Amino acid sequence: MSGSERHPFRLALIGWGAIGATVGRMLAGRPGVQLVAVAVSDAARPRAGLPEGTLLIDRPEALAALSLDMVIEAAGRPSVAHWARAALLAAPAFAVSSTSAFVDDAFLADLLARAEAAGAQIIVPPGALGGMDALGAAALMGLERVEHFVTKPALAWAGTPAEQACDLAALTGPLEVFRGSARAAADAYPKNANVAVISSLAGLGLDRTEVVMVADPAATLNSHRIVASGAFGRMDMTFENAPLPDNPKSSAMTALNLVRMVENRVAVLAV
């Protein structure tokens, strides 16, 4: 089949919040990509900005009839368990953004078994990060330590356990609101610490990756610094990401990495 005859890459998005809507808008009209459906909690309620011709679905079993190439989850931790099993049967690739769901070992083991049985692949996108290919490559030679530092504007921690530790609006300087394993971070801060699960899956795992979270009233960007050392040498990566306008807890880079992931699936030259 020639390039001109190639079928479009058929995609379904789970979620039409700040991240999902950004991904959908950026992919709309892209050559070789077709956003077939968006999965939501209530398909009867209209969603602003939905590309013309895109279906709204609210039942996992509806995925099976769509002839999909990929399903992307971008709707929060509870949505993973609700949609994952159907997604693995409906498409050969299922990308999970809300990786905090993977702190449940039994759930992850079940998901992996189902993916293997279906011949499907579970993909963990970089989220707000980069360099996960390098961290994963370094892990092949053995890692000794991985630290992941997360710094966000103080008010970006609203609605999290950080509110119980301090008055976020009254902070005058940086305050450490969490220090512990990636597993504990993702369990306590599921909307803020998906990145900690991503770096831990690439490197030392959920229980050996050290996470430090900081609320900083002077910060204007969401910052991630990953420091890793081992037989390969040492790496120190810092990412300072602008938050999405509609959700200060999420970085724009999370949506951009999802778009890039899809583009690489259809590009003749993928980087």
TrEMBL record:
The active site is at 224. Its EC number is 1.4.1.21. Keywords: NAD, NADP, Oxidoreductase, Plasmid, Pyridine nucleotide biosynthesis. Residues 172-258 form the Aspartate dehydrogenase domain. NAD(+) binds at residues 128, 194. Gene3D superfamilies: Dihydrodipicolinate Reductase, domain 2, NAD(P)-binding Rossmann-like Domain. NCBIfam families: PRK13303.1-3. Specifically catalyzes the NAD or NADP-dependent dehydrogenation of L-aspartate to iminoaspartate. This is L-aspartate dehydrogenase. The gene is nadX.
